[in-house]
């Protein structure tokens, strides 16, 4: 399948002209095919979220190029939808109004946007909660609302930055199954940023392993587990092999990150 | 009205009734001097006299109208100024401390200056009421906008939301609770200042009645007029609560 997203030699340095420049990314190259589910995994500080923000158009001042269908993108782009790690639903809007938000700002009339919103609310399994406000929902339901809202934007590429990172392990696995259902139903290109190895293997076609700072792509592991896939796959020996392989690659990077963080604290 | 809304109202009225009964007993048994605090029943019974002699209801609306005008002016000044202090960070940092200091000064003591500048009229009441009201509104508007979650702003940016929609649909609703805290504080200070000036210059609405009744040693009537001031305050508190819930239901 043709590449929908191309990341070419992307680098980013924070405080480049200051006393303590931080090299977050260094020459990242990655191609994502249409309909592919790719996870990017790495230790804290490897530049995952920076890469996410660059692809999402939330960081402009970087080196290198981000291309969608061969065209360079600059700033937020209609083809890219974003699901954030932090709580991102609007507390003053009901589930229905939250999901309809991107359609509302596009000027789509109320009846049409509500119909579309209801479709995606059903897809994420929140039917019956249309009139509930985020404060009345669990953490997992809020994140599903955020997912539905991004899906309602109908992006060609869906970026997710540890969307289930704040949830407990069981909820995370069940929501992983839900994401796989959505991915299969919509044939959506998905790019997941995570530091959870099992989540990456459970969901992905490929797992991109990043090094600790400056973030570079250390290795790309294709996950050759059968589809359609559910969380039951974690009981298979093949799943364990992938997890073990990824941990071997990550262990050194995570140790380096931890040692650097401790040295930084000690130096204060 | 839902049970959730009814219950606190009933509890509040019951508490008020209990306090009134205890005060009635305290005055009856001589524990509190009647010349200082009247019986609540005497205060209630003085309302018809006060209406007949001093047009209590008319003056209630004078104070209410003055407070509404001064609060409106305070909103017209405070909201855009707070937004300006948010947009221009250097001015925000420079002026917020001064504004907070100005808020804690007894602006009411400047009334002779305002009398000289504007005369003994409603304009003086409105202007002196608006100054202490505008300050907390400006401060809280800036704080409310500064407190908007960066994630929510990024959600807007990721959906290519225009600057106008970003303000109307994300920043403003997000900042509403903090801004309304400022408005509530502002309206209370506005009312206090207006009643104080009415009292001091013997002009206007309820403050003037309190002053005259106090000078006549009409203690129940004095307290009845003060109770009417509390009703003005309660009206604004309720009204702004309704507007806040309309702007941001949750």
Which stretches of chain A of 5+ consecutive residues score pLDDT under 50?
none
**What is the structural class of chain B?**
mainly alpha
Number of domains of chain A: 1
Q: What is the H-and-E element order of chain B?
A: HHHHHHHHHH
Please give the number of β-strands of chain B: 0
| Estimated share of beta-strand residues of chain A | 15-25%
CATH superfamily of the largest domain in chain B, by name, is MetI-like
Please tell me the overall pLDDT of chain B: 93
Q: What is the second-level CATH architecture of chain A?
A: 3-Layer(aba) Sandwich
Cα separation of the termini of chain A = 51 Å
- What coarse outline of chain B follows from CA principal-axis ratios? globular
Q: Please report the total strand number of chain A as a whole number.
A: 10
Instruction: Outline the biggest β-sheet of chain A.
Output: 6 strands, mixed
Beta-strand proportion of chain B: under 5%
CATH topology type of chain A: Rossmann fold
Please estimate the helix content of chain A. Answer: 25-40%
Question: Briefly, what is this?
Answer:
The complex is a heterodimer of chains A (268) and B (250). Chain A is an alpha/beta fold and 268 residues long.
What do you see in this structure?
- The complex is a heterodimer of chains A (268) and B (250).
- Chain A contains seven helices and ten strands.
- With 268 residues, chain A is an alpha/beta fold.
- Chain A has one domain: Rossmann fold, CATH 3.40.50.
- In chain A, α2 packs across α3, α2 packs parallel to α4 and α6 runs antiparallel to α7.
- The longest helix of chain A is centred in the last third of the chain and has 31 residues.
- The N and C termini of chain A lie far apart (51 Å).
- With 250 residues, chain B is mainly alpha-helical.
- Chain B folds into two domains: 37 residues; 210 residues, MetI-like fold.
- Chain B has ten helices and no strands.
- Chain B is globular and about 70 Å long.
- The two termini of chain B are 17 Å apart.
- The model of chain B has no long low-confidence stretch (mean pLDDT 93).
């Amino acid at each position: 399948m043709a590449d929908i997203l191309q990341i070419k030699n992307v680098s980013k340095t924070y405080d480049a002209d200051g006393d303590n420049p931080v090299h977050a990314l260094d020459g990242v190259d990655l191609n994502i095919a249409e309909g592919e589910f790719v996870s990017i995994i790495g230790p804290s500080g490897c530049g995952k979220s920076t890469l996410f923000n660059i692809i999402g158009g939330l960081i402009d001042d970087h080196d290198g190029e981000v291309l969608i269908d061969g065209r360079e993108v600059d700033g937020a782009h209609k083809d890219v939808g974003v699901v954030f790690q932090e709580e991102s639903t609007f507390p003053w809007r009901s589930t229905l109004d939250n999901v309809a938000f991107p359609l509302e700002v596009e000027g789509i009339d109320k009846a049409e946007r509500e119909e579309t919103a209801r479709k995606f609310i059903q897809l994420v399994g929140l039917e019956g909660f249309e009139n509930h406000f985020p404060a009345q929902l669990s953490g997992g339901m809020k994140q599903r609302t955020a997912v539905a809202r991004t899906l309602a934007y109908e992006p060609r590429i869906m970026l997710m930055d540890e969307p289930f990172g704040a949830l407990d392990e069981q909820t995370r696995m069940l929501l992983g199954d839900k994401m796989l259902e959505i991915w299969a139903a919509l044939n959506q290109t998905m790019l997941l940023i995570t530091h959870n190895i099992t989540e990456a293997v459970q969901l992905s076609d490929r797992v991109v392993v990043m090094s600790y700072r400056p973030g570079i792509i250390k290795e790309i592991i294709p996950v050759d587990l059968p589809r359609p896939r559910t969380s039951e796959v974690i009981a298979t020996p093949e799943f364990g092999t992938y997890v073990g392989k990824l941990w071997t690659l990550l262990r050194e990077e995570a140790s380096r990150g931890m040692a650097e963080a401790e040295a930084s604290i000690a130096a204060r | 009205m839902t049970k959730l809304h009814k219950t606190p109202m009933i509890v509040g009225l019951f508490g008020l009734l209990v306090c009134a009964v205890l005060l009635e007993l305290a005055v009856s048994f001589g524990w509190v001097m009647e010349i200082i605090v009247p019986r609540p029943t005497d205060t209630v019974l003085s309302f018809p006299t006060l209406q007949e002699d001093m047009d209590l209801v008319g003056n209630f609306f004078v104070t209410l109208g003055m407070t509404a005008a001064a609060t409106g002016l305070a909103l017209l000044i405070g909201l855009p100024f707070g937004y300006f202090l948010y947009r221009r960070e250097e001015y925000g940092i420079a002026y917020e401390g001064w504004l907070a200091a100005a808020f804690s000064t007894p602006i009411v003591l400047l009334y002779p200056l305002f009398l000289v500048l504007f005369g003994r009229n409603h304009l003086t009441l409105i202007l002196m009421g608006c100054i202490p009201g505008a300050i907390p509104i400006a401060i809280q508007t800036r704080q409310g906008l500064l407190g908007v979650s960066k994630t929510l702003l990024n959600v807007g940016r990721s959906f290519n939301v225009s600057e106008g929609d970003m303000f109307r649909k994300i920043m403003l609703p997000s900042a509403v609770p903090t801004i309304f805290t400022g408005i509530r504080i502002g309206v209370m200070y506005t009312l206090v200042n207006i009643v104080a000036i009415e009292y001091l210059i013997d002009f206007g609405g309820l403050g003037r009645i309190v002053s005259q009744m106090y000078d006549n040693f009409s203690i129940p009537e004095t307290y009845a007029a003060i109770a009417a001031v509390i009703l003005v305050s309660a009206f604004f508190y309720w009204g702004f609560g309704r507007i806040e819930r309309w702007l941001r239901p949750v």
